[in-house]
Design a protein that fits this description.
mainly alpha; 2 domains; 8 helices; elongated; DnaJ_domain_CS; J_dom_sf
Length: 205
């Protein structure tokens, strides 16, 4: 855990607080055992500086130390929980390989029975066959994947066509004649120009 604290730039409190406390005790011992007055004075000044530092920053350092300890414990628990969730997710995905899609994506029995021949007045079974075919396609992963790819391709084609049609309608509203000539082509623009000149001839000069 001390290695993790050393790697974390925000968790340097223990390496500051504990040495200062040790220095404080050391200089107190030197002050009591030293007979030289100069050494006593220096030791006393150092002790006062360390005590002042601990008084000013001791509470912050202690709070920082406990915050580091709590964060390390929380991080360790979070990593264990995330690893368990990853293992459960992996085992769940491995267990579902090759199985049918979720039941919510498949037709319900009531929807299937709605088109059953016994429920219909006529003997037409085409709707019931279509429902069964759809059920078989959705139940087979390969067939469902193929269906999704085809559906997405057709959907993109239809969306492209709708976008082009909306653009054509927008340009037709803004500039009708230019839009008709642009989208119809020159072979149809010539008869329209001729008809326009015939119906609305220019006055003689």
């Amino acid at each position: 855990m001390l290695v993790n604290w050393a790697n974390d730039s925000e968790c340097l409190g223990p390496f500051i607080y504990f040495p200062l406390s040790s220095i404080n005790l050391l200089y107190i011992c030197l002050f009591l055992n030293n007979t030289n007055h100069m050494h006593k004075l220096i030791s006393m000044l150092v002790v006062l500086v360390v005590i002042a530092f601990e008084t000013r920053f001791g509470a912050w350092l202690r709070g920082h130390i406990w915050a580091c300890i709590r964060r390390a414990i929380t991080t360790r628990k979070t990593k264990k929980t995330s690893n368990k969730r990853r293992e459960l997710s992996t085992s769940k995905n491995q267990g579902q390989r090759g199985k049918a899609p979720p039941a919510a994506a498949l037709p319900t029995p009531s929807e299937t029975l709605r088109y059953h021949p016994d429920k219909q007045l006529s003997n037409d079974t085409s709707a019931f066959r279509k429902v069964n075919e759809a059920y078989e396609v959705l139940r087979n992963p390969l067939q469902r994947r193929k269906y999704d790819l085809t559906y997405n391709f057709v959907r993109r084609e239809l969306e492209t066509y709708r976008e082009a049609w909306r653009e054509y309608e927008k340009e037709t509203e803004q500039q009708p004649e230019q839009a008709m000539e642009l989208y119809a082509g020159p072979h149809q623009a010539v008869p329209r120009n001729l008809q326009r000149k015939t119906l609305h001839p220019m006055p003689p000069q």
